[in-house]
Amino acid sequence: xxxxxxxxxxxxxxxxxxxxxxxxxxxxxxxxxxxxxxxxxxxxxxxxxxxxxxxxxxxxxxxxxxxxxxxxxxxxxxxxxxxxxxxxxxxxxxxxxxxxxxxxxxxxxxxxxxxxxxxxxxxxxxxxxxxxxxxxxxxxxxxxxxxxxxxxxxxxxxxxxxxxxxxxxxxxxxxxxxxxxxxxxxxxxxxxxxxxxxxxxxxxxxxxxxxxxxxxxxxxxxxxxxxxxxxxxxxxxxxxxxxxxxxxxxxxxxxxxxxxxxxxxxxxxxxxxxxxxxxxxxxxxxxxxxxxxxxxxxxxxxxxxxxxxxxxxxxxxxxxxxxxxxxxxxxxxxxxxxxxxxxxxxxxxxxxxxxxxxxxxxxxxxxxxxxxxxxxxxxxxxxxxxxxxxxxxxxxxxxxxxxxxxxxxxxxxxxxxxxxxxxxxxxxxxxxxxxxxxxxxxxxxxxxxxxxxxxxxxxxxxxxxxxxxxxxxxxxxxxxxxxxxxxxxxxxxxxxxxxxxxxxxxxxxxxxxxxxxxxxxxxxxxxxxxxxxxxxxxxxxxxxxxxxxxxxxxxxxxxxxxxxxxxxx
Length: 569
Hints:
The strands form four sheets. A five-stranded mixed sheet has the order 5-8-9-10-11. The chain starts with a helix and ends with a helix. It has two domains: 4-8 and 23-429, no CATH class; 439-566, Transcription Regulator spoIIAA. It is of the alpha/beta class. Helix 7 packs across helix 15. Mean pLDDT is 87; it is low at 447-453. The protein has 22 helices and eleven strands.
């Protein structure tokens, strides 16, 4: 099951598919290269760590996962989670978090949890992704406007205050703003001119050319080369991205302090962030694979995908990368570019490796404002603005409430709070909606049940209590407890549960209490229900010694009452 996609590829592979995969891998690599660096920079790390993630995850996950077209790597959704981890615990803390998250994902896949991820309500996923998009856009303004703020605070409103203060005190660097704007314009225009060449790479190239023109005229521009440095083996300082392939280190077997054996205290501190990373990685991977299925008319294996992304994150962590998951935009680009098999994603990773090894000097010229512009575009697409507005316009009120609360909590507090409050709100409102669907009918002196074609004239001392729908904790108070107001002249009561598909423990306990009270007041009780419900009720009341008649046929029960009444019983 782990190598499901790989097996399917090997059995039907040919040269035409190889050519399509190679071309698609090259196109996707052009999209992934600047984005991987931009995301790594956004969380407070050097750009190479995002590239290492794209390389390692891009090679391992397609071969071990459960989706044919999925492209995995760093994604924008992780920024708001990873940035605080890097701030508090550094790169070592992030590496440990990534590896622990990978282990959790493997366990989730083995336990077959993948299929249940789809049950997260759509307004919740829309709300928290829109909230994350706002946060990413705010973070991008630092480099887009050339503010050069060394460290952004964690809280949203503090970011807004700091950016506003920097704009007023230091001023906007207009050359860098111009580069960012031209990058945005180039991305927008290129989509309409040449659909085969990725718009992000066109925007980055245009921004880089304008940057070089400014630099040639003596205007300082912040680039990857000026912002980041690395140390060569001979002790010299290099600028930009180091021209080395990612290397794997193992805890206890590496001379690096990053890979010292972790203490129990470290593991305890990082477990909760790892669970959050794993949850988001699982959600994004399965959603991305589902989108790929719709586009390519395929079917993914969600549990295999979780195992694959789990192994990919463990290896990514050992290679000093950041967390990885299925990337919807890159997966869509892969399909649109003609990718046929998981090897297309592998090729995209090998192309990025080639860029790092042979073109790192050119990469160092990329301006920071262009990468910020790319993040702004990513944030816009991630915001799902049209879907957000559509839910507010035509969606049920309950969905709009869950959407807004999830969005606000994500922006103002964090993603965990957003998802938590969103899911809780959605569940609460769903319970309320389902509770309203259960109908209650009380009949006396006559009954006309159109669903079962029953018509009887009942004795004056008999009443039928008919429930249509589920009986559970959300509606038991309004459904069952109305029997407490039964008229005093009623001595025979028929509980008609034949159209109750489900009754939970709260309903069982309440029903038992009511029946016990009725029997104590010398009322004759007949309870009609489907066999499954009837068996549950009997099991619950087997030790109560209540004088209750159990039936699974309402018509027979009513006939019995009629006969007993005609005989004066």
